[in-house]
Amino acid sequence: MLSDRIGRITPSATLAMTAKAAELRETGVDVINLSVGEPDFPTPENICLAGKQAIDDGHTRYTPGGGTMDLKRAVIEKLSRDNHLQYDTSEILISCGGKHSLYNACQALFQTGDEVIIFSPYWVSFPDFVSVTGAQPVFVKTDPSQQYEPVMDDLISKITSRTKGIIINSPSNPTGGVWGDDAVLRVLELAKEADVWIFSDECYEQLTYDRTYISTAMLGENTEKVLTFQSCSKTYAMTGWRIGYTAGNKQVIKAMGKLQGQSTSCPSSIAQVAAIEALTGNQSEVSRMRNVFKDRRKYIVDRLNNMSGVNCDTPGGAFYVFPDFSSYMGIDNKIKSSDDLSMYLLEQKAVVTVAGKAFGSDSNVRFSYAASEDDLKRAMDLLEESLAELK
Ligand SMILES: Cc1ncc(COP(=O)(O)O)c(C=O)c1O
To answer: Is 244 in the pocket of ligand 1 (CB under 6 A)?
Structure first.
């Protein structure tokens, strides 16, 4: 009955864990949820006030499908201020979140017969975005000890005449890895040689802890085939407002706008007004949240590395850690996969995580540290207890 297209989509593992946590909570269990991919902070007050004002001011109607000119100008101001990137309004499209932007771009550029390179471990949605277009996702290995930078030989061997795009996501979900500029530059060079598109998913660009982030399109010389994707979701704790945007080649932006116009129409008019305040108003909450995440990163990485048999490299960004638990997995063990470990933590300790398998790495589990210090401490105590039981 259903189309082949739907058969090519796997349900999001992260959303499934969030739903499971909610179910358990309903039954009265005190759940600690470290599966979430969103800041645990409320949207800053100035942004909420702008949203409320937008309703009072009557911004409650359709806007142009690709977003208002005012918001596009705010995006241009933001990209220039934070990323030193210069764009024109014809090179900007506003969508219903970064996820929507990435989906639309895949639809605009990829089709059956194409191959698209994705670095593994990868955000769960990338393979689905690609396969739903009919194109083939091709996975390239990365090095956990080097912030999950690509294994270049593997990348070189995977680029073929069918390669149409390469998706970069630094800082990364699920690993938190932040690539060095040299790694990004090398990928840009290889992409240039092969004449392929680069998608730079920069939704965590404001969450780097050890060095200033440089946008992919700022690195390298000829970046006309780089599409930059950013979002208000993580930077401004606005996940529910659903505002993301793409900057890049005019023709691609126009094609994405055409698709958007015949599918979702415009992003929420109210959220667009709030996003202008987010992008151009007071930015102090962004650094406050970043500093809190940085402290939590240290806490969780230290706790994990103090547990016997657990290996956790310090990620440079986002709000995830992706420790390796391979020493706990084996044929004779109770735990044989990341799914088993994640399920054990959920069923025995009510700690919600996401198994690495969903991200292409079955010896890891993703923990989000977008949670209170108290929850992080309790979760780490319970993990330690579980690992002692499993040894
Ligand atoms: C790597 C990555 N890209 C894009 C997104 C999309 O976020 P949003 O659609 O809320 O902007 C997410 C959300 O979790 C993500 O982790």
So the answer is: yes
Residues 189, 192: Cα–Cα separation, whole Å? 5
Choose one of 172, 233, 245, 320 to mutate for the ligand 1 pocket test, by most ligand atoms within 8 angstroms of C-beta.
Answer: 233
For the CA of 100, the nearest atom of ligand 1:
9
Q: Is 245 in contact with 230 (CB distance < 8 Å)? A: yes
Instruction: Dig out the tokens for 56 from the structure.
Output: 């009072």
- CB-ligand 1 contact for 233 (6 Å cutoff): yes
- In sequence order, what are the beta bridge partners of 361? none
Determine contact, residues 321/171, Cβ cutoff 8 Å: no
> What's the 102 CA to ligand 1 centre distance in angstroms?
9
Q: Which atom of ligand 1 is nearest to the CA of 232?
A: 11
Pocket of ligand 1 contains residue 239 by CB under 6 Å: yes
pTM strictly above 0.85: yes
* Ligand 1 neighbourhood includes 231 CB (under 6 angstroms): yes
- Cα separations (Å) of 38 from 234, 279, 319? 6, 18, 9
Hey, whose CA ends up nearest to atom 13 of ligand 1?
A: 37
**DSSP secondary structure, 191-246, as one string:** HHHHT-EEEEE-TTTT-BSSS----GGGSSS--TTEEEEEESTTTTT-TTT--EEE
| pLDDT tens for the chain, residues 1 to 391 | 999 888 888 877 777 777 888 888 899 999 999 998 899 999 999 999 999 999 999 999 999 999 999 999 999 999 999 999 999 999 999 999 999 999 999 999 999 999 999 999 999 999 999 999 999 999 999 999 999 999 999 999 999 999 999 999 999 999 999 999 999 999 999 999 999 999 999 999 999 999 999 999 999 887 899 999 999 999 999 999 999 999 999 999 999 999 999 999 999 999 999 999 999 999 999 999 999 999 999 999 999 999 999 999 999 999 999 999 999 998 677 899 999 999 999 989 999 999 999 999 999 999 999 999 999 999 999 999 999 998 7
Whether residue 116 contacts residue 136, with contact meaning beta carbons closer than 8 Å, is answered with yes
Class of residue 390 by CB neighbours under 10 A (exposed 0-12, middle 13-18, buried 19+) = middle
Distance CA 157, CA 176 (A): 25
Q: Which two tokens stand for residue 335?
A: 């735990």
Supply the residue whose CA is at minimum distance from atom 15 of ligand 1.
173
